[in-house]
Specification:
The structure holds two protein chains of two kinds. Chain A is mainly alpha-helical. Chain A is built from 20 helices and two strands. Chain B is of the alpha+beta class. In chain B, the strands form three sheets. Chain B has a five-stranded mixed β-sheet with strand order 3-2-1-5-8. In chain B, strands 4-10-9-6-7 form a five-stranded mixed β-sheet. Chain B has a two-stranded antiparallel sheet with strand order 11-12. Classes of the chains: A mainly alpha, B alpha+beta. At the A-B interface, α6, α13, α14, α15 and α16 of A face α3, α4, β7 and β9 of B.
């Protein structure tokens, strides 16, 4: 193959070529416009960087081939329906190409997001190293502020939100009996926007003035005044947000239109419900953070005055718009986890989910209430006083649907046959720590308490209890649970349990004491602190390093089991939902025969109950429960 | 303990939960969570927090008890392939666990609202203090007390204060942990809160809203004094603004300068100076200031005195190598009188090696 078709066809060569071209485009556009206006100097590097930050990622996405089909279609050229690489991945190289198979995209998502999880985690280690003692240890204050800002941004926008999209990408079409997502090409585009956003945020460390250092909240007006690194956040969030919105639309259409015959809404597994409600949140809320960052971008680059009070701007407007997304965002980061926990607990305790309809209704209630509580992040912001009490009440009411979920999971455990597998352990750990995070959440809703503890380590503790002890534990539970399905191999159960216990213990030793230092008067986001917090901070730092090390067990387990683990059967957990009724990993187009849904997804213990049947076979009787034992499922045998 | 071994497992669970609740409550109340209480609001807020703890412990213990009991009592035996009981729900139970949390959070919200009204109530005889934040320092003005200005917050004990908080640049947050009260300083707005200091002593002033490179150093103290001492401080402050502190120090200008350097100026947080026993490192060390002022002053075409004065009132006009712009507050020309600045300049050139050659 000569170089020319390589450079013109979709792929990494064209993507690499696109980078200098996009940069030259940015340079030319800025230089051209500035010379027309007669500005001096013509080469303004801040402006060039800003345009390049928009042009280069777009160039990359076009270069790698996300738009080829649409461009051909729009220009009237003959389209190549599977010109990317077809469904499925035959070698590891196929994972580095634009692929429209939801299973490939799911794996691309999960692996990519875990890469950013590791980077963000290493930044957390640096943060804790700096905070191990009072005074300056390793990094100067500017780098420190950059570290916690990039840490939070990567964890939120490049790990928790998209890893759930990755798991759901793999599992949801299988669960609802669909051959793929509704818009496979849009799905691929959503994925390829992510790495660009993540690389952009990481790259901000290498520009003049250092990384963006205003926290993941990027409050104005400091975010409109800090060096160029801030643009890497402002624009990076746009790509992550666009990816998130496109995926959510894809999920909504897929879930609404592509369910297998017989799968009514009340027969959907709760993970499908969770992703449906999450996607609603994403589609409604995410445009608000995009807007808030565009305002910052315009203030910075075009001299608008959205946040400049001396020119009639309003600083508090930023916070209202930002939190109108970012509070629902905590549910975007939690509801899919609720779905995973329902699947895991029901399957590994061999019992129907207790109060299935209430579980679904409580998800919907959280979506609705979630839009009415944003200003509880602003109780000391100087906003309208009267707004505080209504926001306190709505915030506390969210405890009710959340409580329903906790109690229903407990009732699901009750009188089950509990298999303490690694996913089940993570689910139980999740319940423990999410309850603690919920309790500190209630405290953080009560205005007089929050006047004291807002912007302190108490808040840092709370957010890590709900996002790590909560969300990340559900991610681990989900990955262990679906690992056999995704890879076709079993993970090492002993290593899985070691991973759970070490993370559970050191998580609590790391984040538990943060409640204490916070209430005692240590503010968050500080590179240095008063002497009297030294002892607890030393304990926190040491625990955090051990906590970080425990992750290596997970990594080792995943990598070696994926390669060398014992082969998994189609249904190692003897689960009822549809994804377990096909081989592991599933056939290229998921189903050789379209399933027909005949009952609920969690009918464990009900004699003869089956969730779905394949072809025109009758429902198997009690003697042959769906996917019983480790035997190959009856579905693929004919 | 025999009945424990023989009793029904549910009974055991109930007894263990009860014990855990008692231990949990005792431990959570025994922990010394808060800094000292130095305002009237502190007591109300701490009590509210304690009540929330007492209400939370049983909830958490209950969740844990059911989870741990289930895991031990319903654990699958090796090789057990059976399913659990096909229970799909129980309406009465679901109504209960909607109702009880609803009542609990409603009660907590009402209690919180009452405390909020209580701590924000208007008080007679309130003294107003204007608080201004800027990167990375606070200054304070007493508009009703002769417009005295200070970099150091002094308050009389037991007199209600209303803080009116503003900022010159970005967001800050004025927080006194010992008062349990804070509010953001917002560009374009004046935010307020009321407090009544209830105990004399020295407490912390902390910036709680990320404001840039020096955010973690934006710490200061508040001194709560008996009424008499506070009035004396006010008088001294007014005197010092007029004569640069000479009278208060009995004419010893080095002592007057040291007072300013370690006190009102708040210089010690960032600058090292042996005479004042300070070790701050955010700004240049001042022990060799006389030589430096000679050298840099020549570059800038200034006398050493002019150089030092400029460095105080307009710190970004000239930057000592390796130190960045915007770190030193620019408000000293407003919070220190011209006489006080003269005192400081003389003092710094004296103890910074000027007279000792």
């Amino acid at each position: 193959m000569t170089l020319r078709p390589k450079l013109l066809g979709p792929g990494w060569y064209r993507a690499a070529l696109s980078q200098p071209l996009s940069f030259l485009f940015a340079l030319g556009l800025v230089a051209g416009v500035r010379s027309l206006y007669g500005y001096d100097p013509v080469l303004d590097w801040t402006a060039i960087t800003t345009v390049a930050l928009l042009a280069m990622p777009l160039g990359f996405i076009v270069g790698i081939g996300c738009f080829d089909y649409w461009f051909r279609w729009a220009s009237g050229a003959p389209t190549v329906p599977e010109d990317h690489s077809g469904h499925g991945a035959k070698t590891w190289r196929d994972y580095f190409k634009v692929n429209t198979d939801h299973k490939v995209i799911g794996i691309q998502y999960i692996v990519t997001t875990f890469f950013f999880f590791i980077v963000g985690g290493l930044m957390a280690m640096l943060i804790r190293a700096e905070l191990a003692q009072p005074g300056t240890q390793f990094v100067d204050p500017n780098t420190y502020n950059g570290l916690f800002s990039v840490h939070a941004s990567l964890m939120i926008f490049l790990f928790i939100i998209p890893v759930f999209a990755g798991i759901a990408n793999y599992v949801i079409p299988l669960m609802i009996g669909a051959p793929d997502m509704a818009f496979p090409r849009l799905n691929a585009l959503s994925f390829w926007m992510l790495p660009t956003a993540g690389i952009m945020m990481m790259a901000s460390f290498f520009v003049e003035g250092g990384a963006f250092a205003t926290g993941w909240t990027a409050y104005a007006p400091i975010s409109t005044e800090t060096p160029i690194g801030q643009q890497f956040f402002t624009i990076g969030v746009q790509f992550a947000g666009a990816s998130s919105i496109a995926t959510a639309l894809n999920f909504l259409v897929t879930i609404i239109t592509m369910r297998a015959p017989g799968m009514t809404f009340w027969r959907m597994p709760l993970l499908v419900w969770a992703n449906f409600t999450t996607s609603l949140l994403v589609v409604i809320a995410t445009p608000f953070i995009a807007g808030s960052q565009f305002f910052v971008l315009l203030d910075r680059s075009l001299g608008t005055h959205f946040f400049d009070p001396s020119a009639g701007g309003d600083v508090l407007m930023y916070q209202h718009v930002f939190w109108f997304y970012s509070h629902p965002a905590v549910y975007i980061m939690m509801l899919p986890g609720f779905g995973i926990i329902s699947e895991v607990i029901s399957t590994h305790a061999r019992k129907p989910v207790f109060g299935y309809r209430m579980m679904a209704f409580s998800l919907v209630a959280i979506v609705i209430l979630g839009f009415t509580v944003w200003a509880h992040h602003m109780f000391v912001s100087g906003m309208a006083d009267w707004l505080r009490v209504p926001m306190m009440i709505t915030t506390m009411l969210i405890a009710v649907p959340t409580g329903i979920k906790i109690f229903s999971w407990l009732a699901t455990l009750w009188r089950g046959v509990i298999h303490l597998t690694t996913p089940m352990l993570f689910a139980l750990g999740f319940i423990t720590m999410f309850t603690l995070g919920g309790i500190s959440g209630i405290m953080l809703a009560i205005i007089p308490v929050v006047i004291h503890v807002s912007d302190t380590y108490f808040v840092v503790a709370h957010i890590h209890y709900v996002l790590f002890g909560g969300s990340v534990f559900t991610i681990f539970a989900g990955l262990y649970h679906w690992f056999p399905k995704i890879t076709g191999r079993m993970y090492d159960e002993r290593l899985g349990k070691a991973h759970f216990w070490l993370s559970f213990v050191f998580f609590n030793l790391t984040f538990g004491p943060m409640h204490l230092v916070g209430i005692d008067g240590m503010p968050r986001r500080v590179a240095d602190y008063a002497e009297n917090f030294a002892t607890l901070n030393a304990i926190i730092s040491i625990s955090s390093f051990l906590f970080g090390l425990s992750f290596l067990i997970f990594l080792y387990n995943m990598i070696t089991s994926w390669r060398y683990g014992p082969k998994a059967s189609g249904n190692p957990w003897r689960a009822h939902s549809i994804e377990w009724q096909v081989s592991s990993p599933p056939p290229i187009f998921n189903f050789d025969e379209i399933p027909t849904v005949v009952g609920g997804p969690y009918e464990y213990g009900v004699p003869g109950a089956v969730h779905a049947v394949f072809g025109d076979k009758k429902a198997p009787t009690r003697a042959a429960p769906a996917g019983g034992g480790g035997a190959p499922p009856p579905t693929n045998t004919d | 303990m025999r009945f424990l071994r023989r009793g029904h497992p549910l009974l055991k669970m109930a007894i263990f939960s009860l014990v855990a609740m008692v231990i949990g409550t005792v431990v959570s109340l025994w922990i010394d969570w808060f800094p000292v209480q130095a305002s009237t609001a502190a007591d109300d807020i701490d009590t509210l927090y304690d009540v929330l703890l007492i209400a939370s412990v049983p909830v958490f213990v209950l969740v844990m008890a059911v989870a741990i009991y289930s895991v031990t009592a319903f654990k699958a035996k090796p090789g057990d392939m059976s399913d659990g009981a096909p229970i799909h729900g129980n309406t009465r139970l679901e109504v209960i666990w909607v109702t009880i949390p609803f009542i609990m959070v409603s009660a907590a919200a009402i209690y919180g609202w009452i405390v909020l009204d209580d701590i924000e109530a208007k008080q007679p005889n309130t003294m107003i203090v204007d608080v201004r934040g800027q990167q990375f320092a606070w200054d304070f003005t007493y508009p009703d007390e002769g417009k005295v200005k200070s970099n150091q917050l002094y308050l009389p004990v037991n007199r209600p204060v209303e803080f009116r908080v503003t900022t010159d640049d970005v967001l800050h947050d004025f927080w006194v942990p010992e008062f349990r009260l804070k509010t953001d300083a917002v560009p374009g707005l004046t935010t307020k809160f009321r407090a009544t200091p209830s105990k004399t002593g020295t407490y912390n002033v902390v910036c709680a809203e990320l404001c840039g490179i020096g955010h973690s150093t934006m710490r200061n103290t508040v001194r709560v004094l008996p009424e008499k001492d506070f009035d004396a401080w006010l008088a001294k402050q007014q005197g010092s603004e007029a004569d640069g502190g000479a009278a208060a120090a009995g004419g010893d200008m080095t002592a007057a300068g040291r007072d300013l350097f370690t006190g009102d100026g708040g210089c010690t947080a960032c600058h090292t100076l042996a005479d004042a026993e300070s070790v701050g490192a955010l700004g240049p060390a001042l022990d060799e200031l006389a030589a430096d002022a000679e050298k840099y002053g020549k570059q800038e075409g200034q006398s050493p005195e002019e150089y030092v004065k400029t460095a105080i009132v307009d710190p970004n006009a000239f930057l000592v190598p390796n130190f960045s712009e915007g770190v030193m507050p620019e408000n000293f020309k407003e919070t220190l009188s011209a006489e006080e600045i003269d005192t400081l300049v003389k003092y710094l050139l004296t103890v910074g090696g000027g007279d000792k050659g």
